[in-house]
Amino acid sequence: xxxxxxxxxxxxxxxxxxxxxxxxxxxxxxxxxxxxxxxxxxxxxxxxxxxxxxxxxxxxxxxxxxxxxxxxxxxxxxxxxxxxxxxxxxxxxxxxxxxxxxxxxxxxxxxxxxxxxxxxxxxxxxxxxxxxxxxxxxxxxxxxxxxxxxxxxxxxxxxxxxxxxxxxxxxxxxxxxxxxxxxxxxxxxxxxxxxxxxxxxxxxxxxxxxxxxxxxxxxxxxxxxxxxxxxxxxxxxxxxxxxxxxxxxxxxxxxxxxxxxxxxxxxxxxxxxxxxxxxxxxxxxxxxxxxxxxxxxxxxxxxxxxx
Length: 307
Prior knowledge:
307 residues, Rossmann fold, seven-stranded parallel beta sheet, 11 helices
């Protein structure tokens, strides 16, 4: 029997196992790309990697916010550059990687954080299908293209880590969020399968969910999203989680740094890592002979249990 019955403790704030002080300087000499870095989760992620010693290429569309982020990192003694780009634009992933390599060096860690959401029933009368597909362009096509752009150098050096921020909705029956949920399920499955293709290359592949975090992504950004928030199915769901506490964005950022600096996380290669739960018990379980329950029960993957 597992020594961790039931649900693992929900971590609302950073904790000793992933504490920034534990990994200070551990990524010195490394180069990290963080997309969607200008605000919210991405900003916290970029600062966390810089605090761990990595040089960081901060990528986003908002130039003023990027510049202030880079200045903040530099004022704290870190090293960062700003790259203004739309990750979903054709050719942008290659340009992002080329500029990073030219100014900082070969990429050691790619963190695909940039994402968008679309809230609304799947109905052509209510919404242009191009908007629905735009979610998949940003949330799936762009991170895959960025991964393809960093892989040649990583494979040549036999080292590297590629991570995409996914979401718990990938495995939930969440109403009127078909575009976002299906995109997150797709990218999580991509990372799982990519791990198989990269076996023996020294490159690690992860998707990670931050848990319930209040970000701009979760706020209705236009009339369509605001109207969809009144959909009875979504209102019922939101009511069911209204009393839940939000995780601090630093929790995800600190987990990602730990994943990139701690050799123990290799055991979770290809997995859907939940940053909103204590990760130490998960590592202890997967380190058991045969991978423990994590392998036996095919945990932390996108699966379809059957009788």
